[in-house]
Amino acid sequence: MPQPTLSLRGRLPALLCVLALAACSRPEPPPEPVRAVKLLTVGTAPLTAQVEYAGEVRARTESRLGFRVPGKILQRQAELGQRVHAGQLLAQLDPRDFELAAAAARAQVSAARTQRDLAAADAQRYEALKAQNFISGAELERRHASLKAAQASLDQAQAQAAAQGNQSAYTRLVADADGVVTGVDAEPGQVVAAGASVVRLARDGARDVVFAVPEDKLARMAVGQQLAVQRWAGGAALVATVRELAASADPATRTFTVKAAIEGAEAPPLGATVTVVPPALSARGAEAIVLPTTALMQSGDGTAVWVFDAASSTVRAQAVQIATADGNQAVVASGLAPGMQVVATGVHVLAPGQQVTVYEDKYAPALAGTQKNATQKVANSGAPASAAATAAARR
């Protein structure tokens, strides 16, 4: 009887070790569930989206007008949005200092004229004395030289007086052409430097549509291309011709400015917002493979989709390259071929080689019949078919 007791005690440590090892072992992962997925068959379809840019209507020539002399602004007659004519007063500086300088210049002219007249009379007397041989020829030549110097001083004083008179006239800022005031940069009481912008004037005449395009689209734009321009407020479309492409990118937006001349007499008003459609940048109507964005997923450094294998009822990841967007869909440049079946939704819960089943909406036929009946009712009532379809889809 004592021997069995000793044998059980000897086996107890071994049994404890086995139980500990069994407890520490990792359980096998459960198999992936069989998920139901919605499939779509890859095919080509015409693209519906088109490239549009927001543009602004501007004058072909817009000048920043400023005084040609420094001073303090007394009055500013021009207002934002005001239509002005050539020669119309826009602003005025304090002219007192310039008027005093002009008066001083006129006094210098008077003094120089007096000196010239005195030298001329002196030279005339010495010519008479030389005719009687009372003076030498050298003396007469000195008198003639004094007369020439006095005449040069008079010419100089007259030129300075004319320049000073111009300075006084420069205290009045006038419009150099007919146009519209598009900006005011200075107010009465402000001291401005010579050349500082006071008023911005958009001249009457040709109008441009100005918009910006990204760098990858600039190569497809060229001077002379025809663009379709649509007013933001509606109305008939206009035609514009590209006349200028920016040589460098904007430092803030990194886009390139394009200017297109508007053809026709009915140009939109200055500052109006328009929509520009460049046909050269639009792929509307071209056949391409498009997929909903719900079918795309990130795979490594690129984009991929799940391709369905009908033979094994599994899915595999297929890398694709996206070219651009077509509305709410993505345009596939490479990676897929027509006829393939890809998963349309729920791509984030799938794994490579996972077993799936094809989801079939059992309510789809009934819904289609409901929409058909609703469309028929609205059509019988005289409403447009497109409005009927829209109302049925909303319900």
What's the structural blueprint in terms of helices and strands?
Elements: H1 2-24, E1 35-37, E2 39-41, E3 44-46, E4 53-59, E5 62-65, E6 71-76, E7 83-84, E8 89-93, H2 96-131, H3 137-169, E9 172-174, E10 179-184, E11 191-192, E12 199-203, E13 207-213, H4 215-218, E14 226-231, E15 238-245, E16 256-262, E17 273-277, E18 287-292, E19 297-299, E20 302-309, E21 314-326, E22 329-334, E23 341-343, E24 356-358, H5 364-380, H6 385-394
Parallel strand pairs: 1-24
Antiparallel strand pairs: 2-23, 3-18, 4-13, 4-17, 5-12, 6-8, 6-11, 7-10, 8-9, 10-12, 13-16, 14-15, 14-17, 15-16, 18-22, 19-20, 20-21, 21-22
Helix pairs in contact: 2-3, 5-6
Task: Describe the protein's architecture and organization.
It is a single chain. With 395 residues, this protein is α+β, with helices and mostly antiparallel strands. Among the domains are: 36-47 and 284-358, Beta Barrel (conserved putative lor/sdh protein from methanococcus maripaludis s2 fold); 96-169, Orthogonal Bundle (Helix Hairpins); 202-281, Beta Barrel (Elongation Factor Tu (Ef-tu), domain 3), CATH 2.40.30.170; 364-394. The chain is 31% helix and 31% strand. The strands form 6 sheets. Strands 3-18-22-21-20-19 form a 6-stranded antiparallel beta sheet, with no helix packed on it. A hairpin with a 6-residue loop joins strand 14 and strand 15 (238-245). The chain is elongated and about 155 Å long. Residues 1-6 and 366-395 have low confidence and may be disordered.
